[in-house]
Amino acid sequence: MSQTRVSPPEATAPLAPETRERLMRVGTANVANALFKRGFRNVYLLGIAPLSADQGQLVGPAYTLRFMPAREDLDSMANYARNDNLHRVAIEQCPEGAVLVIDTGNSTRAAAMGDMMAARLKFRGAAGVITDGGYRDAPAIREVGLPCFQRQAAPPATPIALHPIELNGPVGCAGVPVYPGDVIVGDGEGVVCIPHHLADEIAVEALDAVEYEAFAALHIARGRSILGLFPATPESYAEYQQWVAAGRPAIQE
Hints:
Elements lengths: L16 H7 L4 H10 L11 E2 L7 E12 L7 H4 L5 H8 L5 E5 L11 H10 L3 E4 L6 H7 L3 E3 L11 E6 L3 E3 L2 E3 L4 E4 L4 E4 L4 H22 L13 H12 L8
Parallel strand pairs: 2-3, 3-4, 4-5
Antiparallel strand pairs: 1-5, 2-6, 2-9, 7-8, 9-10
Helix pairs in contact: 1-7, 2-7, 5-6
Keywords: Lyase, Metal-binding, Methyltransferase, Transferase
Protein name: Dimethylmenaquinone methyltransferase
GO molecular function, one term: methyltransferase activity
């Protein structure tokens, strides 16, 4: 039986280099705050954690794979080995620089990916992988060096519980809507999703927040109260801008 392809894979637009560079320097919390200011509350993929504590920052446009629960007459190792199996096709079609977003419906009953797939994605230039399920071969995936995020380890073979049903369509990953091309940012705390049309402005604002926090931290380290300093007020932000214009000098006691 042929695999189902509800919506065909489409090209994933690359990020502007300056946007990627900015997002590589910010925290997911900064991104979530900037989105909250614009009314977006459900953007953080809660419960998803980095596979390795020392893996690098993850930034890239989303390329999605959606699973549904497996059915015994359709899902076997023989069918899994077919060249039209969408799970394996996703590994070969995820664009360079993109993040493979795997929606398992929060299932950790079977693997969303293993080390051979991670190695292939790494070779093809993918930015990383996130899933609301889990991976098998986690120690080997860490050795691959591809930034990956999961809910928890899921060693059983994929066809035991998961059937790939769609490539590069809208998904709900960890309860967050992710559309193809939305921008994924992952760090040591977790993963956040930026609607694609907001990526450039969110990157600018989030990086500005990071740099303001560095300014505030210098004052706090010297005993200044957070009142009137953090969060920024119009007065403290003007003070920050003057500090930047002066070349970011050391804060005097």
